[in-house]
Structure formats: C-alpha cells, structure tokens
Amino acid sequence: MPGTSISPLNIYEGSFKYANEWYFLSYERREPLIIIEMDGHDKYNYVIFAIENPSEIAAAIRRRKRNIETV
Q: Is the distance from CB of 25 to CB of 2 less than 8 angstroms?
C-alpha cells in the first residue's frame, strides 16, 4: 500500500519504495527525526519518524537493543 506524501509541506505517512528499498515514514518536518535501519526485516529497510526528544528516544532504543543482544 503506498503512502501519502505532500512534498511541499514535508508531510510523509506510510510505506514508500525508493531505489528498490522499502521505507516506513511518519513525519511532518524534516527534523528532528529518528531513523532506524532494519536488518533482516521482511519488508522495510528503514523506519523514519518524528518524535519529541529524539536524542533521548534514540538513546533508549540503543540501551534496549544492547540489553536484548546480551540475553
């Protein structure tokens, strides 16, 4: 299912395919964004979204990932 984009307003929501890679996008501004590269996911290569406090969220994701890898 294709996503919705309003390029002049930098609004992107949903699934997009570019250069034979799938992206899930959810943002209305170009920054600040969280960009997650998905290794081994069946469909998506990247998940990109806007969120408040992206640095804190990115750090929390990294901590969670480290905890999962050590189990």
A: no
- What is the Cα–Cα distance from 43 to 20, expressed in whole angstroms? 11
Expressed in angstroms, the distance from the first to the final Cα of the chain is 36
Distance CA 41, CA 13 (A): 19
Cis peptide before 8 (omega within 30 of 0): no
Q: What is the pLDDT of residues 20-70, one digit of tens each?
A: 999 999 999 877 889 999 999 999 999 999 998 999 999 999 999 899 888
Give dist(CA 66, CA 48) in Å, integer: 20
